[in-house]
Amino acid sequence: MASRLYSWARWAIRRRGRVVAAWLLLLAVVAGLGVTLHGKVTTEFSVPGIESQQAQDLLKEKFPEAAGGVARIVLAAPEGSGLTRPKAHAAVEAGLREAARVSGVVAVSDPFKDRTLSADRRIGYADVRFRQPASEVPQASKDALDRAMAQARHAGLEVEFGGSAMDRKTEVGGPAEVIGVVLAFVILALALGSLVAAGLPLLTALVGVAIGVLGVEFMTRYVEMTSTATVLALMIGLAVGIDYALFIISRHREQLTDPEQDVEDSIARAVATAGGAVVFAGATVIIALAALAVTGIPFLTVMGLAAAATVLLAVLVAVSLVPAALALLGERLRPRGRRTTVRAAGSWGPAWARAVTRKPLLVLLAGVIGLLALAVPARDLRLGLPSNASQPVDSTQHKSYDLLTEGFGPGFNATLTAVVDLKGVPAADRAATVTGLRTALAGDRGVAVAAPPVTNADGTLAVVAVVPKTGPDARATTDLVHRLRAEAPAVDRAGGTLYIAGTTAAAIDVAGKLSDALPLFIALIVILALILLTIAFRSVLVPLKAAFGFLLSVAASLGATVWVFQEGHLDGVLDIPSAGPVTSFLPVLLIGVLFGLAMDYEVFLVSRMREHHEHTGDAAEAVTQGVARSGRVVSAAALIMAAVFGGFVFNDDPIIKSIGFALAFGVLVDAFVVRMTLVPAAMALLGRRAWGLPGWLARITPDVDIEGARLPARAKAGTAAEEPQEAAVR
After folding, report:
1. Where a domain ends, among 313, 338, 363?
2. DSSP code at position 458
3. Are residues 601 and 627 in the same domain?
4. Residues 85, 93: contact at Cβ < 8 Å?
5. How many domains would you assign to the chain?
6. Could you tell me the pTM of the whole model?
7. How would residue 31 be classed by pLDDT, with cut points 50, 70 and 90?
8. Which residues of 268-304 are buried (b: 16+ CB within 10 A; e: fewer)?
């Protein structure tokens, strides 16, 4: 691999202007497509085959007027007043008449006729049903609905909006994300010791991310994807793009500390060595993200593929645009000052390595126990999707949630829909079947109200709204959904089919589906790690150690996420409006992303150890030199990733907030505790045994040479190096 990357880099260096122009042209073309021909994104996380989705599909087919998106208008009179007073009543009625004329609206409920008023008549709500599904309701209709209720506001009433049609759109690019990028630049400047060198990884990463994200925007024209997919592609693409460029540039500057080192040869050599680690590590990230397809969940598959495509672009940028840009800068990146062989590590690198390896067993035990302690809260992990309680406290969605809870109880934010397919029930028995079902549902200890049934035109489908006593995030509501579904056999015996659906039930179903997929996904990732690292390092023990460390990082990160988001700690610091279940797809996403990033650091760190061992055969010194030569870069890379991910922690979207926190925490733990501490300790304990490979396995394992052992001799300044003719894989 190293030899071929060396040749490739020499090719890119000779054609530096064309390479840069090609990337800029690609950026311009994709930007044009993404901006002008993008499609729509959805806020719904639907999964084919789950019960709630089957019910929704049935409603679209047989009862379309009950399948559209719903905007719930929540009204509140001032303290001491009420909605039934003449002025307030007239203003509400006028506003609802105006709402009924909004484009796409098919029905508007009347809170006075339907008795959807609180006991003191101060709070009430009206449901506005659209013809389109919630994700397809245009923003113009939402704005018109808001304007329609202006008369109610003028009458002194508070008007807030909830419901599926009014979900907030995920937005990025706020001050927090910008601060993350600024912090990344500061870290780069400190790590590389040059403002020019620090700016280069940011510029090249932005080119790759812009192409990736705008390409994803263009694909929304043809593929349905959630708004989270674009944000995830931005988050991961920016982080790995900066890190991959950093790995190559730092190796280049380390080599240039030799005043006799030829610049172009140094660039090619950096791409061949550090670039080899980038290609290998990037491949693991791409495969891990693409492996999200094994969950069988379409929105997660699309999300993973979108992020994987952005990572692929980051790898291609690192091994083509970065060397071309380095060649254009030439001697300007050569460090000033005296020559030093461990400049990239700083003085702390060897000292840290020796401190960790002095008593490696004690370090291992302390590290493992500490990580397991962090993982303890993960035992209580509950999965779900964020409700309006998790939205920012100043948002209309959160305010509507609070008003409904105050006026009617928390269950009115978790309304379930019992959908009954009566096609197989004799016409004479349908009314009795639905009435009996409603009575059974209303009799459950967790149900506050079971509304009168509504049927479609031919009487083959009935819908019963069921209001729980508890909120959407409560465990009791999840238990209620399972109990209500236990009523299905009684309907089946009558010839019908019962489905429990609605937004809350859908969130529970998605969480269950993801929980079932988690063991298979973890097994796939661990097996993948063992195979890839066995090929990279021609070792059995190194991959086993790496996989174990990765599992510890995931467990600790999940534990911290549960402690913060589910148990409600640090809510003031991180601006978390309400504690609730962890986002259902976060564990799968965390495992996929963190696996790839953990392998980045593992490959970069251990490859420097193996490189020294290959040249000297000294296993103990190889550990010290590996940490000394890569410690500063790995630390900087981890801090950059944490800064980028950490910026998203302050995003208003609760899903993005939790993903950003989990990834930032996971990266810091994996880099500084696992890779920089536990890995050197374990390698010191293993000694020469770490590099052993059974004979039969050695014969079938390809030698990819990511350390550059077969590269040509270094070229001095003013001379040209001969390109290697030997194949990269023996």
Report:
1. 338
2. T
3. yes
4. no
5. 4
6. 0.84
7. very high
8. bbbbbbbbbbbbbbbbbbbbbbbbbebbbbbbbbbbb
